[in-house]
Amino acid sequence: MRVGGLTLDPVTKTPVVVLRDEKDSLNLPIWIGLLEATSMATELEGIKMARPMTHDLLRTMIQELGAQVERIEVTELRDNTFFASIHLQVNGVVMRLDSRPSDAIALALRVGSPIFVAEAVLAASSTLTEQSATDGDGEPGPGKDISDVSPDEWQDILENLDPDDFKYKM
């Protein structure tokens, strides 16, 4: 998957990163923190800070130690929380490090590593995203196919979300 965009949840004003599959047929919104959203946005926009941000420091440490980020993976959705791992190759050995998805995604953007999402996460989160799909009149409608939702439609969906519509509260 790739970062399809960043937006704000209009109700909670919480940043949301939207992951999109390579065919642009599936979207996965993940609510994240403001600092992580800022880190992603600066990298996506090519903004260089005077001093390294946390994820820049992490990238530099990994590179200086001779390691490489093979991939990151959103591995699980449990108790309303997404989990991720960073697959790091060190001296020919792959290590799997537990991470918040937001940190893993911010790092992946900096090192150019692929982003994967486990099938179980997509299946578990489909209830959440299906409920936020519109039913033609701009209102959320249950059971909608989200594979056809464009980035512009996601903006409209997120602006009209009601937190009570979610199975998984973020």
Features:
alpha+beta; 170 residues; disordered C terminus; 33% helix; three-stranded antiparallel β-sheet; globular; single chain; Bifunctional nuclease domain
- Indicate the percent of residues in helices: 25-40%
User: Class in CATH?
Assistant: Alpha Beta
- Overall geometry: globular
Radius of gyration: 17 Å
Description:
By secondary structure, the chain is α+β, with helices and mostly antiparallel strands. It has one domain (2-165): Bifunctional nuclease domain (Roll), CATH 3.10.690. It is 33% helix and 29% strand. The chain contains five helices and seven strands. The protein has helices at 34-44, 54-64, 101-111, 119-132, 151-159, and strands at 2-8, 15-20, 27-31, 68-78, 81-90, 93-99, 115-117. The strands form two sheets. It has a four-stranded mixed beta sheet with strand order 6-5-4-7. It starts with a strand and ends in an 11-residue tail after the last helix.
